[in-house]
Amino acid sequence: MASPRVEINYCTQCRWLMRAAWMAQELLTTFETELGEVALVPGTGGVFDVHLNGELIYSRKEQGRFPESKELKQLVRDKIAPERPLGHSDRN
Which CATH architecture has domain 5-89? Predict the structure, then answer.
């Protein structure tokens, strides 16, 4: 089975590259051995979407806000390693 792939689609017009890169770094640091790749995909029109293996797991437009780091880690964990604790990033 192939390692999970995360895509972070971000708006270049809005200058959200640094936010996308920070989220990618957070995911790669947390899921060092579980993730195979985190890709940054430039877009336009205010997009900030996160896909895991092609499935949309977070959309800024749908939620009306950016994801918190903790929230995004939980979403990824729940899909790729539900038994894995996230320490301080775990739900209460």
Answer: 3-Layer(aba) Sandwich (3.40)
d(CA 53, CA 2): 10
CA separation, residue 51 to residues 13, 75, 78 (Å): 20, 10, 14
Q: Quick one: pLDDT band at residue 88, thresholds 50, 70, 90?
A: low
What residues have CB less than 8 Å from 57, skipping those under 6 apart? 50, 51, 75, 76, 79
Domain layout of the chain by residue ranges: 5-89
pLDDT in tens, 27-85: 999 999 999 999 999 999 999 999 999 999 999 999 999 999 999 999 999 999 888 88
